[in-house]
Specification:
single chain, alpha/beta, TIM Barrel, 11 helices
Amino acid sequence: MSNLKLGVNIDHVAVLREARRVNDPDILQALYVACANGADQITIHLREDRRHIQDSDAKNIIHHSSVPVNLECSINREILNIVCDLKPHRATLVPEKREEVTTEGGLDVFSFSDEISYAVEQLHDSLIPVSLFVDPTLEAMTKSKQLGAEMVELHTGTFANLFAMLNSSLPYSNHSVKELELPRYELSQRLEQSLEDIKLSAVHANKLGLEVAAGHGLNFHNVAEMMKIQEIVELNIGQSIIARSVFTGLADAVKEMKRLTTR
């Protein structure tokens, strides 16, 4: 069996805490439970608007985690300075907009190549390996390599939305993806193409010498499709684990996802 790491994103524990602005649930308790029950990595996103993870959270998590910490961040200079001081095990550069609910789409490695190149160089100067969160295209893989990243994380949001519109009650909810309210045969074709894009991008990145991760929208129902792509060596999953934990507890939710992501 090839090794695959499960990165557990605990941002949504902080989302719940910030809803009432009390230290409950405790983000460090979430860290300890995730580490004790199968997380190979902890992933957090230090956003510019600090809507969930705070600077002190990031510092404490990096200090107390028994597994590597993957710190997601924008290419904002102020944020990069903080990340360099914190020295996580890896930094993943992601796009960020204040008005978004969550990160939508991959980093535009073409329009912002100069800024990204500067960010990669700054992080490398602090001995921090860099991953770029990008859409699954061959061009983005090649550009990520040119920009000096050691790793790419393939944005799986399109795949996840298509899968959910086909295989869940999402189309009948208030959160239906309007642009994907299409005939089932067309959704099936688009889902197949999305999976092919992810697979081809993973293969190409691997040939370029990049490590390949995947994340965004992955859950207990769709993660099996990612397991079929051998070039993917890491999955970063958050919201679905925290959502499941409401009913099962965090320990069991992490254990179940670890079971599903073991090859």
